[in-house]
């Protein structure tokens, strides 16, 4: 197969890395890609939101399989776009259509979906600018802390946890009246705060059949001890020690099966990844959110543990034959530490030369925000590298990943030094 991946981050580099190991993969392309994907694929200098350019690339390079990495093209209907092109309507695509991608694209849709199909989640209500007064009154009687979520895509920044009623009211006013998150905040979901421990479960659906991939836990905040601003993710671990077989069976029965059954009842042919963000509360799973794609940096710990041919798995997803594929998973632990630019997640500089990458041993460096500049690899984003180590114990995987993060050098480098340490304590 000739395969095209849309995206430019660590997730897409991990996809390319895994696909390049498959004998089923003939030619591999990434649009637009990064310095890491350039080592194993042909980068195409086109935007993944330019659907016409993507279609031209599919024609020019005789693409057999299209894998959509980020959420934006999915929510904006890239699958629907291809389905209405006479010559490309039958292209095999991994990724849901716009209707399916609403699971991520609209928090209000996903909450209503969960309620309709009895999927455990926090109680919530949705408000708009027209019902701002009712929303403010609703907050007066709401328990604290309280969660406010912009309905649409807000680049991972649309969730606010307010500790006081005054802060919650101010946040609601800023979102609905001040347009803090633009159109994404035209609706705001006010949600009960759940106390528990967080993890993510990843499902592949071909519209009828499904496979559950290895679970992962990521670390969202910039600072150690989960302090400071939210980021796209500072690290991840798989497997998750507190997600034992009995808990994962509950996830499958109470969340995965009703989600897929609900999609079928809604007439949504969902072919792609479903990322299920969960909170384990008193031993029970509650859904915090759905994403319509793989997580990042979770992909960088999930795929290294996957022993099944990834190209075969992707083709089966697009073709509706997942029931014929056996998913095999390594028992090893994978840990990734994300190295980020100075100033991230606020303003940061690009173009810093990265050194010492060639000296990393037993660690896979997935490029997230990098660029080839002449003979140098330079920083080109907030999250720069995801450094993944695998080992027979969580302690060893943490140690190797952290050693790699110390070794890689560029001006302003930051990383968290506590990735996975909470899970070591939990296991003890």
UniProtKB/TrEMBL annotation:
Keyword annotations from UniProtKB, A to Z: ATP-binding, Ligase, Nucleotide-binding, Purine biosynthesis
Superkingdom of the organism of origin: Bacteria
EC number: 6.3.4.13
Coiled coil regions, renumbered to chain: none
Entry GO MF terms: ATP binding; metal ion binding; phosphoribosylamine-glycine ligase activity
Pathway linked to the protein: Purine metabolism; IMP biosynthesis via de novo pathway; N(1)-(5-phospho-D-ribosyl)glycinamide from 5-phospho-alpha-D-ribose 1-diphosphate: step 2/2
Pfam families the UniProt entry points to: GARS_A, GARS_C, GARS_N
GO process terms (BP): 'de novo' IMP biosynthetic process; purine nucleobase biosynthetic process
Gene3D superfamilies in the cross-refs: 3.40.50.20, ATP-grasp fold, A domain (3.30.1490.20), ATP-grasp fold, B domain (3.30.470.20), Phosphoribosylglycinamide synthetase, C-terminal domain (3.90.600.10)
Catalytic activity of the protein: 5-phospho-beta-D-ribosylamine + glycine + ATP = N(1)-(5-phospho-beta-D-ribosyl)glycinamide + ADP + phosphate + H(+)
InterPro entries (UniProt xref): ATP-grasp (IPR011761), ATP_grasp_subdomain_1 (IPR013815), PreATP-grasp_dom_sf (IPR016185), PRibGlycinamid_synth_ATP-grasp (IPR020561), PRibGlycinamide_synth (IPR000115), PRibGlycinamide_synth_C-dom (IPR020560), PRibGlycinamide_synth_C_sf (IPR037123), PRibGlycinamide_synth_N (IPR020562)
Domain ATP-grasp, residue spans: 111-319
Similarity comment text for this entry: Belongs to the GARS family.
Alphabetized HAMAP family for the sequence: GARS
Name of the protein in question: Phosphoribosylamine--glycine ligase
Organism: Spirosoma agri
Gene: purD
């Amino acid at each position: 197969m000739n395969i095209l991946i849309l995206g430019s981050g660590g997730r897409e580099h991990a996809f390319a890395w895994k696909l390049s190991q498959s004998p089923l993969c003939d030619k591999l392309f990434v649009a637009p890609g990064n310095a890491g994907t350039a080592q194993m694929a042909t980068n195409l200098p086109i935007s993944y939101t330019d659907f016409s350019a993507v279609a031209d690339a599919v024609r020019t390079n005789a693409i057999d399989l299209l894998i959509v990495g980020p959420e934006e093209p999915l929510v904006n209907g890239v699958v629907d776009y291809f389905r209405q092109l006479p010559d490309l309507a039958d292209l095999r695509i991994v990724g849901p259509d716009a209707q399916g991608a609403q699971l991520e694209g609209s928090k209000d849709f996903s909450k209503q979906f969960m309620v309709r199909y009895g999927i455990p989640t926090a109680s919530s209500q949705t408000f708009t600018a027209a019902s701002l007064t009712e929303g403010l009154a609703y907050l007066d009687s709401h328990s604290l802390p309280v969660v406010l979520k912009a309905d649409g895509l807000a680049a991972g920044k649309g969730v606010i946890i307010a500790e006081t009623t005054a802060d919650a009211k101010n946040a609601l006013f800023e979102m609905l009246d001040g347009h803090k998150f633009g159109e994404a905040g035209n609706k705001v979901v006010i949600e009960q705060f759940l106390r528990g421990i967080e993890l993510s479960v990843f499902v592949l659906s071909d519209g009828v059949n499904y496979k559950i991939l290895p679970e992962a836990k990521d670390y969202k905040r910039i600072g150690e001890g989960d302090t400071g601003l939210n980021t796209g993710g500072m690290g991840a671990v798989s497997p998750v020690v507190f997600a034992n077989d009995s808990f994962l069976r509950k996830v499958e029965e109470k969340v995965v099966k009703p989600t897929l059954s609900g999609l079928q009842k809604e007439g949504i042919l969902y072919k792609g990844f479903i990322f299920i963000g969960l909170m384990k509360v008193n031993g029970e799973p509650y859904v915090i959110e759905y994403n319509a794609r793989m997580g990042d940096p979770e992909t960088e710990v999930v795929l290294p543990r996957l022993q099944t041919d990834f190209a075969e798995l992707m083709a089966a997803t697009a073709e509706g034959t997942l029931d014929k594929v056996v998913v095999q998973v390594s028992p090893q632990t994978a840990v990734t530490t994300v190295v980020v630019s100075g100033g991230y997640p606020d303003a940061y500089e690009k173009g810093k030369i990265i050194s010492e990458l060639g000296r990393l041993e037993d660690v896979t460096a997935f490029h997230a925000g990098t660029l080839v500049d002449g003979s140098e690899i330079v920083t080109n984003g907030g999250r720069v590298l995801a450094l993944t180590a695998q080992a027979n114990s969580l302690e060893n995987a943490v140690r190797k990943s952290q050693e790699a993060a110390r070794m890689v050098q560029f001006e302003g480098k930051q990383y968290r030094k506590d990735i996975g340490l909470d899970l070591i304590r939990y296991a003890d």
